Every structure is written in C-alpha cells, then in structure tokens.
Amino acid sequence: MLHRVVFFALAALTLTPWVSAPLALVAGAVFALIAGNPFPKQTARAQAWLLQGSVVGLGAAMNLEVILSVGASGVLQTALTLGLTLTLAWGLSRAFRVEPVSALLIGVGTAICGGSAIAAVAPVIGARPQQTSVALAVVFVLNAVALVLFPALGQLFALSPAAFGLWSALAIHDTSSVVGASLQFGGEALAVGTTVKLTRALWIIPLTLVLARVWPRSEATGQGTKRPWFILGFLAVAALVTWVPALQAPGRVVAAVSRQVLVLTLFLVGAGVSREAVRALGVRPLVLGVSLWLVVASASLAAVKLGWLVPPL
Question: Which of 74-88, 93-107, 109-123, 234-248 shows the lowest per-residue confidence on average (mean pLDDT)?
C-alpha cells in the first residue's frame, strides 16, 4: 500500500516546476527497480496517451507553414540518413552476430523515433515479444543516457539552442527524450527539436509499408501496424494556431501545460522499466545499439557543428 502512495506522490511532484525531465525519468526507473511498478499495465497505457496528447498540445505553439517547409526541405536528407543508419545496423549485426530481426528493430529505432518505430515495425517483420522487449530496452537505456548527457555536451561544444535542438532530433531515439533534452536548452531548441523529430517520425508510415512488401512472408505475423496518428493531431493543432491568430495566445498556454505533462510522461516511461527487461537486455544487442548510436550521434554532431546541417527554424 505504501509504495502505491509513494508512486502517486512522485507522479504528482513531476507536475511541479521543481522536477526536471531527466530527474523524472531517473526517479521513475529507480522506483520501478527498487519497489516495482504497482500499476504496470495502467502506466504503459497512460504514458502512451499522455505522450501523444502532449505532442499534439505542443503543436499549439508551432507554425504549420514552417513545419511543412522543414519536412519538404529535409526529404532527401532524411531518406539518406535513414538508409545509411539501417545499412550500418545491418553491417554491425553481422560483426556482432546479432540476429536480423533485433538488429532491424534497433536500427529503425535509432534512425526514426525509438519506441514508436519499433512498435510499428515489430508486427510487420514478425518480431517475437522477446526481440521487441530487447530492442525497447536498448532504446530505453540510450534514451536515459541521452537525456542526461546531451545538454552537458551541448554546453561543452557551445551549440546554439537551434543547433542543439537539431542535433537532439537527429541523435536521440524517442520523441519524449528529444523534448526533454531540448527543453533544458530553451524554447528555440524545443521548437526545432520537436519539429524536426516529428517530421522524421512521419517516415514510419512508408517504412512499414515497404517492409510489409519486402520482408519474407514466412516471418510475417499478419498483425496490423501501429501508425503514429498523433502526428496528424500535432499538424492539425499547428494549422489552427497558424491560420486563426486569435488562438495563438491560448495556444502558448496549452503548449506550456503540454511541456509539463511531458515531465510526468517521462516519469511513467522510467517506471515502465522492469527487472525482467533488464535481464533480457543481452550484451550483443546492447553493444550493437550503443555502437550504432555513437556513430549517428558523433556524425550528426560534427555535421551540425561544421555547418553542414543547418537548423531549419
């Protein structure tokens, strides 16, 4: 009974300005590993809805014309980086002897948007629950590291807020962690990071359609894919505040509330880690995920720092 009370107290505390995004994530994970999550199914469902609702709410502070411009200008760049990341994941899987399904899941999670991409691709390629869990565990660990490490590295390399937002969107797996890291660099970093990450997340849809056609049919499960429909909500809200000027002031309030709810969401994400998932985290998939992430993060940081990639906003 006591650990349930503590869980609710910690969750409520994340809605205050005293708890940062990294602290919320770490607090959730530490609590889950020590006491166990008292509501695993409910928190998994709640974090999905809260994340999607918060991302939609963040659209209230965005300009749709800028978002569409970012998406159009980055089509070739995104396609190229997606192809290179997946090719590198395949090469590393051969080097580290990681079976293809787990390697592909880790690759798409790194290239697009972490857990959302993994959840969408897993049923298409016939991934077993264990393979999906391992890929999600790898992504979770690297998200937690990035959320704490990236702001410090951004300061070390003297990145501007816009440059930091771009780098976060390119190198951090999940949208929630991109938002959490960018939030620590200010509003401009948050706007760039969120916009670039969400435009990249749209690539889940064509990727799942392609994989459904090319992946060996003998391994398919026949299950439907999970598409990120919340991105359409983000675009719809951005369209409203862009084309109805009277909604811009209340839109900023909605976006501010959404940013705070995201801190709660990160606490629930942390609370989703379990001892079983930690035990399932094999050494080889973790080495593959870390190696792939280090290459992507280092290359994108160099490209941003040297001006080869320019913040779109």
Answer: 109-123
The CA distance from 38 to 64, in Å, is 40
**Distance (Å, rounded) from C-alpha 131 to C-alpha 81?**
24
Reported as a single tens digit per residue, the pLDDT across 72-101 is: 666 777 888 888 999 999 999 999 999 888
Distances in Å between the Cα of 1 and the Cα atoms of 5, 8, 138, 143 are 7, 11, 31, 31
8-state DSSP, 224: P
Q: Which residues contact 243 (CB under 8 A, 6 or more apart)?
A: 64
Res 221: pLDDT: 44
Alpha-carbon distance of 43 to 199, in angstroms, equals 27
Going by C-alpha positions, the residue among 277, 301, 256, 214 that lies closest to residue 60 is 256
CA–CA–CA angle 171, 176, 181 (5° rounding): 60
Backbone angles phi, psi at 36, to 5 degrees: 85, 140
What are the boundaries of each domain within the chain? 2-305
